[in-house]
Amino acid sequence: MRHLKIRLLVVIVVLAVLLLSHAFAQSFRGSIRGTVTDPSGGVLPNTKVTAKNIATGLQREANTGPDGGYVIAELPAGEYTVTAQAAQLSPAAQKVEVNVGVDTTANFDLTGIQKVTQQIVVTAENVPLVETSRDVLGQIGAGDVTELVVVNKADLADPIDLEGLRRAERGSVVVSARTGTGISELLAEVERLLPRQERQVTVMVPYDRGDLLSRAHAEGEVLEVQHGQYGTQLTARVPPGLAAELTRLPEPQPLG
Predict the structure, then answer these.
(1) What is the DSSP annotation of 211-226?
(2) Is the pLDDT of residue 51 over 60?
(3) Which pLDDT score, from 0 to 100, does residue 20 have?
(4) Strands 103-105 vs 111-112: parallel, antiparallel or unpaired
(5) What is the model's pLDDT at position 117?
(6) Global confidence as pTM
(7) For 12-16, 136-140, 150-154, 245-249, which range has the lowest pLDDT when averaged over its residues?
(8) Average pLDDT over every residue of 126-145
(9) Radius of gyration, CA atoms only, the chain
(10) DSSP class per residue in 177-220
């Protein structure tokens, strides 16, 4: 009977040790996994994926395999900014919550680099992504891309937080996709930043074609106006279509 008790005690101790070992192996760790694809939907092998802990700054990296998949394992629980970047494609970043013993999925669909304007959309909870995006753009040689910071979810954000964002990001645009607030301002700012293919013309506009003068003011940039006997000499930068109309004008004739 005594030997039986000893054996039972040994079995219980062994089981306890195994359970404790399993518990320690599972504690405080999680992982991030996913797939990186290109604009056509094809997988992107050998693409660098970086996970950075927002609170501690801990950073881990992995490269995608032949199937475009990656795994960053053994990560302490917490919030991470995960960034994927590949040559000739615009980097992408997202915020991910890593929990103990859980595989968190973070897939990326990279698009072509936009040489005109890099638009960074900010919400009150993902401000660190702004600097992350800038860092990544600098690493791939696109640090000089024109930037427009757009603060979304204005209808949900605290007014004090919004004011702080405006002060931190001069020239940013605050919008709400749900209510439409700030959308017209955003469109105007995007139009202002886009490259303009205007032509500079110097023409004599007859006095009876004031409509063309009005269009030059509305659609282009009027540089100089001189009123003469038969018409108005106009120097302006205007869109190609309007430039063509202005240069086809006949020579002004005396009125009356």
Answers:
(1) HHHHHHHHHSEEEEEE
(2) yes
(3) 46
(4) unpaired
(5) 44
(6) 0.40
(7) 12-16
(8) 61
(9) 31
(10) TTT-TTHHHHHHHHHHHS----EEEEEEEEGGGHHHHHHHHHHS
Q: Would you say 225 and 205 are in contact if contact means Cβ atoms under 8 Å apart?
A: no
Token couple for 133:
């995006």
Residue 143 half-sphere exposure, CB side, CA atoms within 13 Å?
A: 8
| 56-88 pLDDT tens trace | 889 999 999 999 999 999 999 999 999 998 877
Does residue 18 register a pLDDT over 50? Answer: no
Token output for 215? 């269009």
Domain assignments of the chain as residue spans, ordered by start: 29-111, 113-195, 199-247
Give the strand pairing for 173-174 and 146-151. Answer: parallel
Look up the CATH architecture of domain 113-195: 3-Layer(aba) Sandwich (3.40)
What does the alpha-carbon distance between residue 204 and residue 229 come to, in Å, rounded to a whole number? 11
Give me the half-sphere count of Cα atoms (radius 13 Å) on the Cβ side of residue 202: 3
- In the chain, which residue ranges form alpha helices assigned H by DSSP? 2-26, 128-139, 159-168, 183-193, 210-219, 240-247
Contact at 8 Å (CB) between 127 and 164?
no
What residue type is assigned to position 200 of the chain?
Answer: Q
List the CATH code of the domain at 29-111.
2.60.40.10
